[in-house]
Amino acid sequence: MHSRPTGGSSVRRALIAVAIGVTASATAFACVDPAGDYESYVDSTKDIRGVTPDAGPSDGAPFEAGDTDINAGKRTYFGNCLPTIVAGSPEMSLMFYGEVTFNGGKIDLAIHSLKETATKLSKSETVGAPQIANGVTLESDSTFVMTIGDVSIPGSSQRIGPSDLVLKNVSYQGRVLGNERLCAELQGEAVAPLTATLDKSGDFCVWIAMPDGADLPKYKDASGKDFVGIPNEEYHCP
Questions:
Q1: Which SS3 state, helix, strand or coil, does residue 216 take?
Q2: Are 97 and 130 in contact (CB under 8 A)?
Q3: What gap in Å lies between CA 218 and CA 225, rounded to an integer?
Q4: Residue 118 burial (CB count, 10 A)
């Protein structure tokens, strides 16, 4: 499990917001290499985020794919994505209200951004346009690829910083781990307010089946403060 800073999450968020602003300003006035920007950002903010630049899979025990009811119909999921730019800080994960419909060998998926203040799994607590993919093929090994395209995640629904997070060429290379849990690698690139590739390993997303209206899980960060989400060791995907 990656180590995390001992300061409050609000302090980390403020410092990361400053780092993002500096990166964005530099990008506006110079020809840059996005991959180089990303590596520089990861290195320069590793102390803020309490992690090393190597943000590979966590050391938690791997999940194994369980039996999947391919005709389970529609289910709701609490989703969390932890990009490598905030690896080791699960209190800054992107939170989603997910709707997944299993229909034979196909699945329909709709991912709605949850407000950063949400405490219940409810569509009324979502903002922005959903990410939608219908008729996605579920392979025999329970894997799938959800291709989305361009995505804008409102600042009010993400805890990395106050600005909208703009992503391009988004896709999810996912796997169904039984009907209670899904996981995926987030793919694409961040283009604002910072530039970063998401095509490297480690940008994990996890969806946990929960009834609509259920209380969202809470855990404690390194400082002992409660946050909504899942612990760091759960961010991996076999």
A1: coil
A2: no
A3: 10
A4: 19
User: Positive or negative CA dihedral for 196, 199, 202, 207?
Assistant: positive
Q: pLDDT tens digit string along 122-136?
A: 999 999 999 999 999
Global model pTM greater than 0.85: no
Phi, psi of 50 (to 5 degrees): 75, 25
Whole-angstrom Cα distance, residue 200 to residue 84?
Answer: 9
CB 228 within 8 A of CB 235: no
pLDDT per residue as tens digits for the range 186-228: 999 999 998 999 999 999 999 999 999 999 999 998 889 999 9
Contact 142, 182 (CB under 8 A): no
**End-to-end CA distance of the chain, in Å?**
16
Query: How far is residue 185 CA from its own chain's centroid?
Result: 9
